[in-house]
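Quick start: what a row looks like.
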Amino acid sequence: MPRWLVPIVILVLVAGTAAEEEKPWFVNVATEAGLAGVRAKDGIFTDLNGDGFYDLCLDRRRFYLSKGGASFVPHEEHGIAYPEVTRVPIGKTGKPDLEKAKKAEFVPQYLYFADVDNDGDQDALYGVRSVWEWYDRSRGRFITIPECDHEVRSQVWLNDGTGKFTLGPASRAV
């Protein structure tokens, strides 16, 4: 056998053997984790109740507590408010498009967890992107469109250590 052919033969033999023994690189354990049928675009893992296990927040509004690191249970009594707001889009001319206004549950654009009050638990900070301003190129600045302001602002929610949150002081002014 030509010398240059030896590495190719070895590679084919090794690849063939590895393919037969290869285990799947992903195993869906959603059912075992208590999350069967749960869909989400994003998720955050953090210990909300101080038990040493990562809990889960999906889409910045749905919370699940870990049961000893083995599975998750819904945590609906978290206390963070997601009010119903009227969303009024800004048209191409910078005017509110009232015909396309829709009522919807407010979901923050950002949600972070950190120990804001230095008590050892994970507090929540949620952020709001301005949807009530329009950039007027002719003036070179942003213009406020009051009809598009849903009046929800970034907020700090303090955790009591059990995964129950209350609105932080002066949070409306953030």
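That is the whole record. The first strand starts at residue 43 and ends at 46. Residues 3-173 form one domain.
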